[in-house]
Amino acid sequence: MAMQSAALAEAETAPDASGGPARGLLRLLRSPLTCAGVIITLVFLILAVVGPWIAPYDPSSVSDSATAGPSLSHWLGTTQTGQDVYSQMLYGARASMLVGFGSAVLTTVLSVLVGVTAGYLGGISDEVLSLLANIFLVLPSLPLTIILAAYLPHSGSLGIILVISVTGWAWGARVLRAQTLSLRKRDFVEAARATGEKTSRIILKDILPNQVAVVAASFLGTVTAAILTQASLAFLGLTDVTQWSWGTILYWAQADSALLTGAWWWFVPAGLAIAVIGTALSLVNFGIDEFINPRLRLAGIGTKKAQRAQVSGRRTRRPGRRQGPVVRRPAGAPFTQESTDVVLDVRDLRVEYVNGTSRVPAVNGVSLRLRRGEVLGIAGESGSGKSTLAYAITRLHKPPAEISQGEIVYTNADGSTVDVLAMRDDELRGFRWEELSIVFQSAMHALNPIMRIGEQIEDVLKAHRPGMSTQERAARIVELFGIVGIPADRSGSYPHELSGGMRQRAMIAVGLALDPEIIVMDEPTTALDVVIQRQIVEKIMELKDKLGFSVIFITHDLSLLIELSDTIAVMYGGKIVEMTAADDFYRQPRHPYSRGLLASFPTLGGAKRELTGIVGSPPDLRHMPGGCAFHPRCPLAFDACSSTQPPLYQVTRTSGGTAEAACLLFADGADGTTTQNELAMGETQ
């Protein structure tokens, strides 16, 4: 209670994580060059609004002061007919800026709608929208712009905006589609899907914010390009030359031979204005990139107190979802191999990757049971189906992956059961993170790079606990950080400001946010050094014993798996080939593949031995060998192995326990008796 009260007090006094709009603007304007760009742009925008009101003359009225240089009466001189160039510049600013920003808004909206939608949704939507973008990309934009403008000579600024937008949106859409295709595969997007986020919210909150720099660059670049295009069309006489713009000024200057007569004041101001606004927009773009990308920010943000995330938008309540604070699950009795309390039962699961008429099984008939409080380790080489199995259990697969058969039965604490594969989308949103969560293998990719760590944990709480107050959410974040061993003041840090081990701890904190019954950990120690791996393993074991959850731990590191797991399942070619207690697996592996894996790791004690490994490569799932999938690499294979596919046989150990091994060497002793075949394999230690 004291800890909770302290956490609440700290949360209430914590500064805002985002710093508010005012602070964000100050950070944006910290660079002198960015500040100069913003000021210049604002000056041009203000002149575009008030220009016609403050212009000293009618820009079209003639006078006796023909081709006069700059003076107090005419600040920028006059034209051949005595028209005031300064007044023309003020009037022309409105048309040029309107075309520039109007075209940029319309072009950017079209680019974002088509590019992001096509990239994220995929399938037929992607094909249709990409085809549309490709058609506009192959069309020559300049001739098309000239032709369209020639047919709309008297449509004014609106016609020019439409012409530029129609001819210019496809390139931005193509870039955004490519960026979205990259982002949608990132683990933090998968994590957002796992927490129950709607597609529209994932796009608006996870996809688009990571592309703001690209969108901003496209928008500001389009402004400059549109102003230049409008000036070019006007200079060629393809627009209404009676409507004043900077391009119109250049048209009349060229038509009346201003360059030949030396009347520089007639054409220099318009050209200089176009160049200055282009430079100013480029400076603003550099500043936005620095502001959006946390890695480029000059201000240190990593030493703030625990902060409350400012995430806009209300979520609707979903049936059956807890609305209040997180309720702690009581930790059960310590797990033993004799336990029969099954929490997750995977039955004959098959996952295929579909490509037209081709179906490639990545998980082929896998059955396993996870008992309450157990750590089930899954081992195997790359391509054996480990991560595919993890994504199938959490229902995070997207096309072309397809679960073609099987059941995944979850048993609640009250004994009721539910088939995870039969859940509707709304039921699945409530199940994920509430009962089952996942920790992805690369924390740098699984954490959103532009969101603070505290905000990402709060996102989970907001999605599943809309009834929690801001203070309760902030207190829960502080509590979770304490559980996984992260200082509370790192709540305001971005992922790149944390070490690899601390990022992985943050991912574990996200997984524990709602106190789930099961946590699937897909290679959570990948790319970490052995010291940090040790810390992560010890923390997982500590939390498991304290909180009583069950773990599915997936890795190719057998030494780590043996130390952490209660039970180990070895996968090869999409199947489980051995399942046994971790201690028995280390002392007496039964399947030849398991023996080969263990022989690939050096021992820290005992007699020296040569590391043998396994000859050959894992099988191509598209062309699996007949019979036992391992027989082309197996040193103990015999004739029947190439034609008979072995089931999992019950094998009795010399220690008295039992194991399962999919090897024909145990076919004769499937009743549990020791056979000559077993003796022929020998003992490992």
UniProtKB/TrEMBL annotation:
It is found in: Cell membrane; Membrane. Its main location: membrane. It is a multi-pass membrane protein. GO terms for biological process: peptide transport; transmembrane transport. InterPro entries: AAA+_ATPase, ABC_transporter-like_ATP-bd, ABC_transporter-like_CS, MetI-like, MetI-like_sf, Oligopep_ABC_C, OppC_N, P-loop_NTPase. Pfam families: ABC_tran (PF00005), BPD_transp_1 (PF00528), oligo_HPY (PF08352), OppC_N (PF12911). Residues 93-285 form the ABC transmembrane type-1 domain. NCBIfam families: oligo_HPY. This is Dipeptide/oligopeptide/nickel ABC transporter permease/ATP-binding protein. It comes from Actinacidiphila oryziradicis.
